Every structure is written in structure tokens, then in C-alpha cells.
């Protein structure tokens, strides 16, 4: 059960991270191809610059580590509650 829980958690966070990264890339492509400017598009251009992708990589690593720790904590609490309810 524990292995399924962790695999499901990591698969879910992987899908969400891939969706966010893909969306940022797509918006950056649209911004650069159509030379769009304005508040939103300037932020997208900044994020898709060289400096921000390094930061995004660190954010992704931190997200995975945080979600993994949260997943362990939730699983242990659930197991403890299940053991209490069965006694």
C-alpha cells in the first residue's frame, strides 16, 4: 500500500510540473513569435529567459522534495489513525 501511495503522489506531481513547464514554454513561444508586449507577456518573457530557468529548476526540485515529505507525513498519520480505529 505504501509503495502505491508514493508512486501515485510522485506521478501526480510529475504531471503537474510537466503541465506548468509546458505551459510556460508554449506561452514563451507565442510571445516571441508574435512579439507580444504588455504586463503578462513581459513576465512570460522574463520567466523564459536564461536566468529564470535555473531558478525554476530549483523550484521544481524543492517542490518534489516538499511533496515527498508531505506524502510521507500524510501516509504515516493515516496508518496511525487506521491502527487506532481497528483496536
Summarize the entry for a quick read.
By secondary structure, this protein is mainly alpha-helical. It has helices spanning 2-33, 39-47, 50-86. It is elongated and about 65 Å long.
- The number of E-state strands comes to 0
Structural class of the helix and strand makeup?
mainly alpha
* Silhouette: elongated
Provide a count of the helices: 3
As a percent range, the share of strand residues is under 5%
**What about the largest sheet?**
none
Average pLDDT score: 90
Order of helices and strands: HHH
What percentage of residues falls in helices of 4 or more residues?
Answer: over 70%
Radius of gyration (Å)? 19 Å
Total of domains: 1
Contiguous low-pLDDT stretches (5 residues minimum) are none
Distance between the termini: 20 Å
Main location: membrane
Keywords: Membrane, Nickel, Transmembrane, Transmembrane helix, Transport
GO molecular function, one term: nickel cation transmembrane transporter activity
Membrane topology: Multi-pass membrane protein
